[in-house]
Amino acid sequence: MPELSSRQFAQLPPLQAIRVFEAVARHLSFTKAAEELGMTQAAASYQIKLLEERIGAPLFLRRPRQIELTESGQRLAPAVSEAFALLSGAYSAARAGADGVLCVSTLLTFASNWLAQHLGSFQVAHPSLAVRVDTSNRVVDFAREDIDIAIRSGGGKWPGVETHMLFKADFTPVLSARLAASIGGVKEPADLLKLPILDPGDIWWQEWFALAGLPAKELASRPGTSMGAQAYEANAAMAGQGVAIVTKALFKNEIADGRLIQPFDLVGDDGHAYWLVYPTARRNVPKIRAFRDWILAEIACQ
Length: 302
What we know:
Layout: H1 6-11, H2 15-27, H3 30-37, H4 41-55, E1 60-62, E2 67-69, H5 71-96, E3 100-106, H6 108-125, E4 129-135, E5 149-154, E6 161-168, E7 172-174, H7 177-181, H8 203-211, H9 230-238, E8 244-246, H10 252-256, E9 273-279, H11 286-300
Parallel strand pairs: 3-4, 3-5
Antiparallel strand pairs: 1-2, 5-9, 6-9, 7-8
Helix pairs in contact: 2-3, 2-4, 2-5, 3-4
């Protein structure tokens, strides 16, 4: 690892000024940065002034209602963000190693229908590492939240993070055998329109019916009830309340034991998938590496 000489240390700017610059560059607001750091706007502006004097060039363009990074600021901002991420990762690794607490942020359905069913094997392999699961649909800010690793659904292109695809977020209709029998069976896609559709405003329905060669304009006139998660809609489907559209990989057990039936092999794919995500700068933290290796191996065995 390269070492800094005393001369190089002397050339480093004050840490407080760098902290303020990182916050202002991220928010593009002196006010928001000052609130985050617990200081006045005047104090934040003073720290930026010190840094600009040290560098010998302006870092921000001050406009009446907004600020922008200058060319010098644009060059400095990503390096500063990476430096703070590296420092945070090194501190966490030194403090906890492969022990302590691993906080995983994930979607509710993935947590209940996949993670909860497999997590036991991870705990057996790593008994000294406690796992805390945070379920949320929001995108995690690793720099500001106490989250080590996340499982997201999307296209897989997020800046500053490592991504590993777990499986595709494809989609297909499911329902209970009892509900299908109530109309004499579901023999063709059009039969689904004779039944209650759970969350008819979900874009997946439009895409799936289009694949099936059916217009589904009448879905727009149905009550737009939404339960907010595939897990809830699948539970309603198992109770015979309607037809849900879900990612099959998350409901293998329910389909295998007959609690849900998949009436057609037709599966939609909008290019999204489930991804394991963590900050690039923390990729070698032992507890993150342990969880990454375990989940990728677990998925590969399915």
